[in-house]
Amino acid sequence: MTVKIFIKRKMIDTREAELTLLLRQLRALALSQPGYVSGETLTRLDKKDECMVIGTWRSLEDWNNWVNNPKRIAVQAEIDKLLGEETEYALYSC
């Protein structure tokens, strides 16, 4: 069963360059993770400081393996620290 993960983040203009580097690191790591299918980043039109990443994974097990990947955890912790709040996740089945 394919799953879609909706990842919501509030952006900070003053730290955009740092955040972009971290998000690229995270995406590069995800590309090599078994079960990763695709990802798409959307910027909200009515709230410029909010973005949504929609990740597609082959299975919930693959997603859970990614969530528990120590390299992902380290980069995600840097992202949350930079943004000043935890990233929100919502999981859906396809």
How far from one another are the termini?
A: 7 Å
Q: How much helix is in the residues?
A: 40-55%
- Oligomeric assembly: single chain
Largest sheet: 4 strands, antiparallel
Structural class: alpha+beta
Work out the count of structural domains: 1
Rg on CA atoms, Å? 13 Å
| Beta-strand residue fraction | 25-35%
- CATH-derived architecture: 2-Layer Sandwich
Which spans have pLDDT < 50 for at least 5 consecutive residues? none
- The CATH topology assignment is Alpha-Beta Plaits
| DSSP, total strands | 4
Question: What is the residue-mean pLDDT, rounded to a whole number?
Answer: 93
- Put simply, the count of helices is 3
Physical arrangement of strands within the biggest beta sheet? 2-3-1-4
Shape designation: globular
CATH class: Alpha Beta
Secondary-structure element string: EHEEHHE
Written account of the structure:
The protein has 94 residues and is α+β, with helices and mostly antiparallel strands. The chain has one domain (3-93): 2-Layer Sandwich (Alpha-Beta Plaits). It contains 3 helices and 4 strands, in the order E-H-E-E-H-H-E. The chain has helices at 16-31, 60-67, 70-83, and strands at residues 3-10, 36-43, 50-57, 88-93. A 4-stranded antiparallel β-sheet has the order 2-3-1-4.
